[in-house]
Amino acid sequence: MKKKLILFAFLFVFLFGCVLGLTTHHYSMLFNPIPNQAPYQVTPNGTDSAFFNPFAIKRVRFAMNQLFNREYIANELIEEWALPLFSYKGRDSAFGFLVDELGLQMGLSVTGNEEWAINEIDAALQEAATLPENQGKLEKVDQKWLFNGKQIKIRFLMRDDDQIRMNLQNYLATQLEKLGFSMEITYKMFNLAIPQVYNSDPRDFSWQVYLEGWGNGTRVPLDGNLITQIYAPWFGYLPGGNLSQPGNETWWKYEDALLDRQTRGLYYFYPLSDEEYLDLMMKFIEYGINESVRIYLVGYEKE
């Protein structure tokens, strides 16, 4: 009975959205997680200097979900009607109430938990500092994180062609600085930012954080294609994954063989009942939130 009610809700919201002609927009953060394994160091292409990348640590990425106050972003920084999101499917989508509940079960909050996030990230970095490759190199001095004697800088690629986006980016940078990092900010217009993020080798290390903006004019009740696009490396929307870009075969790529294999079934819609399909979608959303290479912040509506 519960599943039937959920499916009815899908159809209701789908039809409701089509009648009003609403378009759903989202903001999400994308992290460059290279090398995504210990000791979390990267030597960029064309250089011989190693850098420490905090976003290579899964524990750090997940804690980012609580560093930011999604409710504040929605109410104060977005001019349109907005709602906090834990994933692409939020309260403004067909089964957003399930995703909201999933986020809460995973310990997330729309207001975040800044103190917990700072302590959790600090603990993860302290643990990383004990690795043999990082000993004497990664350290915290006067509340600032250093690597090889230099303060760790976060390379934040920002868009400067949208005031709302600028307000949000500035807030995110302020929060990241509270972790003991400094910001290395580069401003680019849309046509220059997109190739740098999606069409280049993450090993170039020209960016670590990018604020994404998405727009979707459709409301499909059971759309695993979007979940696959968001979380599965094989689809090509995660760092190093643009399969059509010349030279891609030599790039570093964020990889997850298990997720790739399983999401292909969802994407190509192998014979599944609606209940099985829904269960898989929720499973992959939970997996994607845990990985947190991409984290969602807010969704808003426009006519």
Distance between the termini: 34 Å
Strand percent estimate: 15-25%
Order of helices and strands: HEEEHHEHHEEEEHEHEHHHE
Strand order of the largest sheet: 4-11-1-10-8-9
Indicate the radius of gyration in whole angstroms.
Answer: 19 Å
Helix content: 40-55%
- Total strands: the figure is 11
Mean pLDDT: 87
Q: Tell me about the biggest sheet? A: 6 strands, mixed
Q: Pairing-aware structural class of the strands and helices?
A: alpha+beta
Flag low-confidence runs. Answer: 2-23
CATH class: Alpha Beta
Q: CATH superfamily, please?
A: Dipeptide-binding Protein, Domain 3
Principal-axes geometry comes out as globular
What is the level-2 CATH architecture name? Roll
Number of helical segments? 10
Structure in words:
By secondary structure, this protein is an alpha+beta fold. The chain has a single domain, classed as Dipeptide-binding Protein, domain 3 (Roll). Helices cover 41% and strands 19% of the residues. It contains 10 helices and 11 strands. The protein has a 6-stranded mixed β-sheet. Strand 8, helix 6 and strand 9 form a beta-alpha-beta unit. Helix 2 runs antiparallel to helix 5 and helix 4 crosses helix 10. The longest helix has 19 residues. The protein is globular. The two termini are 34 Å apart. The N terminus is likely disordered.
